[in-house]
Amino acid sequence: MRSRAHRPRLAAAAALAAIVAALIACSSAHSAVSFSANPAVPDLPAVTLNAQAQTKNATMGNWGVTMTGSKTGWNVTVNGDSSAGKSADFQQYCPNATCGTDSGPGYITGGATLPASSLVLNSTGASWTGNSGTTPSHLCNSGCSMDTTSAVKIASATTSVSTGTWSTTGYSATSVAATIPTTTRNLTQSGEVYHLDLVFTLATGP
Questions:
Q1: Per-domain residue ranges for the chain?
Q2: What pairs with residue 204 in β-bridges?
Q3: What is the pLDDT of residue 133?
């Protein structure tokens, strides 16, 4: 199952970054898992380029997982989407029909980019609510890069975790961090942003 989510942005004087998330749920014959609330990477604050490396932070939106049937466990991964028309890392993007002399909506061919692994999720301090017994685990206490082509596991539940719904809580104000290098180019066309596409995948099994 695939569904489209929100378009959070890291806006800027240089117009930096929007993120689109796609969601995939995979289940076995003996259990069913689904997102009770979709992972929500938020808008990031505005950036004014000043020839200095910068980090901009935001609070990861809470999300949840519901499992029914057998206690098979589950896991959630995230990666950048490199399929046609998408981008696994931050690329120059026009969200409108036109942005100055550029046409959209879409990525600008030959446009500016940010390096891969510029966007990190840190789950330090986050926990789980809504159920009882053994809790799932957050796996990004040391930080997980989200804008990579390889899937990174951000949370998991063992077979000891109860069926039902578990929801995240307690993400910190620095749980989402975007690194802005000194080489970042100012986007001069009106309305353009740096943008990427993320895929969150939920599957059975820890």
A1: 2-204
A2: 74
A3: 94
